[in-house]
Amino acid sequence: MTTDPATALPDLSELEAGAAVVRLPMTVKFRGVTEREALLLRGPEGWGEFSPFLEYGDAEASRWLASGIEAAWQGFPEPLRARVPVNATVPAVPAGQVRDVLAAFGPVQAVKVKVAERGQALADDIARVAAVRDALPEADLRVDANAGWTVPEAVEALTRLGEFSLEYAEQPVPGINGLAEVRALLEARGTPVKIAADEAVRKAEDPLRVARARAADLIVVKAAPLGGVRRALRIVQEAGLPAVVSSALDTSVGLAAGVALAAALPSLPHACGLGTGALLAHDVVRPPLVPERGSLPADSLGERATPDPELLERFAAPEDRRGWWLERLRRCHAVLAATRV
Ligand SMILES: O=C(O)CCC(=O)c1ccccc1C(=O)O
Ligand SMILES: [Mg+2]
After folding, report:
1. Which residues make up each annotated binding site for Mg(2+)?
2. Helix, coil or strand: residue 85
3. 147 touches ligand 1 (CB under 6 Å)
4. Which pLDDT tens digit goes with each residue over 43-98?
5. Which residues lie near ion ligand 2 (Cβ < 5 Å)?
């Protein structure tokens, strides 16, 4: 087994031979979608997922392919822990729906609440966070704005939301400098809130700039957008900041890569955002990788990421979508062949 993903890129024909394209219904709208499409790859070491969001360009999407190839052609590094604690993820739903959303995750120690949704007001965020705090008075509560606020909006919102006692705020504003500014302004006001960088790490040409700019207290890392488990491990090590591993709303196949990453980190001080299997109404693996009493198992991930053929058939994407994904696979394979990540 090679340890460097740069050493061996399988031929396109090998990828195509083991490719399944699925479309899975979700229980709630998330990132504006109610169905999740994914191309799953079967290789000599198991299964991998290639599911960049539909709007992503090929350069960005090709890192997700590197991650899927790593899982299926190399497998995962040895886990350092048996289970990975996870948060429930509450999309930008009305406060009245919070209890139903939380119920799908079962008991959890941590909850992430989406805020700053376009078309909503700060009052909606406050009501949603209050409903979560009310349902789970002891939980670690984090919010994720997906860069939806301006710096002044973030300072106001986090001052108000800070009253519910936040573990941290994920990507309140765009960019690395914006994060550093929000972090310093809250600190200067005497209302510090820990800041987590997500998009600023995921999309940055230089993922390590976040740490150097003192823009965040921790980083959110995702296996697929960072080009795989091993590359993400190196980025965390070089950043020298605590890391939270999150999903990209993956199927159980992609979630297994996230669990492998979380299980291989030398230190894991926070629950991870890998409970999103509970937001899928159906999955491709039986049983799916969903939280059990607030955590996911980190052993036997190869088996846990093996789709059930009947589910692959039942949730096979329509023919035109399969064609679209295979074409994207071909283009991203060409990007990897030309550059490698
Ligand atoms: O971290 C979680 O709880 C769930 C994962 C999540 O929020 C997410 C899922 C897909 C795309 C982006 C994000 C994000 O963290 O911004
Ligand atoms: Mg995020």
Report:
1. 144, 170, 198
2. strand
3. no
4. 999 999 999 999 999 999 999 999 999 999 999 999 999 999 999 999 999 999 99
5. 144, 170, 198
Q: Where in the chain is the domain with CATH 3.20.20.120?
A: 83-304
**Residue 247 CB–ligand 1 contact under 6 Å:** yes
List beta partners, residue 25. 35
Told to judge if 112 belongs to the known catalytic residues of this protein, a careful annotator would answer no
Instruction: Note whether 236 and 222 are within 8 A (CB).
Output: no
Distance CA 326, CA 238 (A): 35
Angle between helices 151-161 and 122-135 (to 10 degrees): 30
| Residue 33 near residue 15 (C-beta atoms within 8 A) | no
* Cα–Cα distance, 261 to 228 (Å, whole number): 9
| C-alpha 8 – ligand 1 centre gap (Å) | 30
Q: What φ, ψ does residue 35 adopt, rounded to 5°?
A: -140, 140
Answer whether 249 contacts ligand 1 (Cβ < 6 A). yes
Question: Residue 341: pLDDT above 60?
Answer: no
144 C-alpha to ligand 2 centroid (Å): 5
- Show the tokens assigned to 325: 């994904």
Compute the distance from residue 70 Cα to the ligand 2 centre, in Å.
23
Q: Ligand 1 within 6 A of 198 CB?
A: yes
**What top-level class would CATH report for the domain 12-76+314-339?**
alpha beta
User: Is 203 a catalytic site residue?
Assistant: no
CATH superfamily of 83-304: Enolase-like C-terminal domain (3.20.20.120)
Contact assessment for residue 193 and residue 211, using Cβ atoms and an 8 Å cutoff: no
Q: Which residue has the tokens 């937001």?
A: 279
Model confidence pLDDT, tens digit, residues 133-177: 999 999 999 999 999 999 999 999 999 999 999 999 999 999 999
Ligand 1 contacts CB of residue 258 (under 6 A): no
Separation of CA 276 and ligand 2 centre (Å): 13
* Residue 146 CA, closest ligand 1 atom number: 16
Tens-digit pLDDT profile for residues 214-253: 899 999 999 999 999 999 999 999 899 999 999 999 999 9
